[in-house]
Specification:
Quinone Oxidoreductase, Chain A, domain 1; Rossmann fold; seven-stranded mixed beta sheet; six-stranded parallel beta sheet; 27% helix
């Protein structure tokens, strides 16, 4: 497993360590052999001590991954050894875990393991934000910055599947070209300076801010009067900035979104329905993100360094010895 011995020291605090296997599952639990885990910006921010939640060290990082059920408790229904699952509990940078059966989602046996390892967080965030913040109708516009991120790419694809249109802000022309190829309705290259101006019929009812700082204010300029800006990330490390004109005279709302809170607030049936839809979309290539590289779990420092690299276009995965291609 991977352990962070301190919070706030980034890559220097993590190491691969040997620990006893977790206990065998209780009556309502499952034991899982993890296969692959994704490295997300939230994982990097947690290691750097800049995330909103700071776990007490030592802790096992990793918000999401995919595994295979090794054993199921006597009262568990619908899960059996050999089933592929996504655990919700986090601490996924491990070879084995034991967790409550209600805290996993079962996957079809033929799913792509790379994409399954990335299904819990980014596609679910995109779908929840598009579905649960503002009541949107086909034809509505949605705006976002960091549009070439994994969440951003999923927003573009899911919005298209829902009949919505997107305005997408990126910092590099190369990223813009990639998003146009994915079917983004409009792409704006903006790296500071005056905020981009949309045409009136492209103003968004809802916008997603992954950056914070002055980027929040620039994004607000793309939003229609009475619209909403939802911040879900802090890639800049700076507090959200929004000019009072947007709040006072244009009646914009600035709010936050956190998937962990969404999990706590929605009904289990809703979670199951959403992930069932995401699995179908994953098979149809509606959701997903490119994978830049896989690293063995023991090479976690190289993997984290690659995930932190500026301008990276693709996700970095950690794979265990149980992975079929390890």
């Amino acid at each position: 497993m991977i352990v962070a011995q301190a919070t706030g020291e980034g890559i220097d605090a993590i190491e691969a360590v040997e620990r006893p296997d977790p206990p065998e599952p209780g009556p309502k639990e499952v034991a899982i052999d993890m296969l692959a885990a994704c490295i997300n910006p939230a994982d990097l921010l947690t290691l750097e001590g800049r995330y909103g939640v700071k776990p007490e060290p030592p802790f096992v990082p990793g918000a999401e991954g995919v595994g295979r059920v090794r054993a199921a408790g006597s009262e568990v229904e619908g899960l059996a050894p050999g089933d592929l699952v996504i655990p919700f509990a986090g601490s996924c940078w491990v070879e084995r875990m034991t967790t409550p059966a209600r805290a996993v989602v079962k996957l079809p046996s033929d799913v792509d393991l790379d994409q399954a390892a990335m299904l819990k967080a980014n596609p679910a965030t995109a779908l929840a934000m598009l579905s649960d913040i503002v009541a949107l109708s086909p034809g509505d516009w949605v705006a976002q910055n960091a549009a070439n991120s994994a969440v951003g790419v999923n927003v573009i694809k899911i919005a298209k599947a829902m009949g919505l249109r997107t305005v997408n802000v990126v910092r590099r022309e190369a990223a813009a070209e990639r998003l146009r190829a994915l079917g983004a309705d409009r792409v704006i290259v903006h790296d500071g300076g005056p905020a981009p101006e949309p045409s009136e019929n492209e103003r968004a009812r809802l916008a997603f801010d992954a950056v914070g700082g002055s980027a929040t204010d620039a994004l607000a300029g793309l939003v229609a009067e009475g619209g909403t800006v939802a911040n879900y990330g802090l890639l800049s490390g700076d507090p959200c900035e929004m000019h009072p004109n947007h709040l006072v005279f244009r009646d914009l709302t600035l709010r936050g979104f956190w998937l962990a809170k969404w999990f706590r607030e929605v009904e289990p049936r809703t979670i199951a329905e959403r992930y069932s839809r995401l699995v179908e979309w994953m098979k149809e290539d509606v959701v997903g993100a490119p994978v830049l590289a896989r690293h063995p779990l023991r090479d976690v420092k190289a993997a984290v360094a690659a995930a932190a690299r500026e301008g990276r276009d693709g996700k970095i995965l950690l794979i265990t010895d149980a992975h079929p291609e390890a």
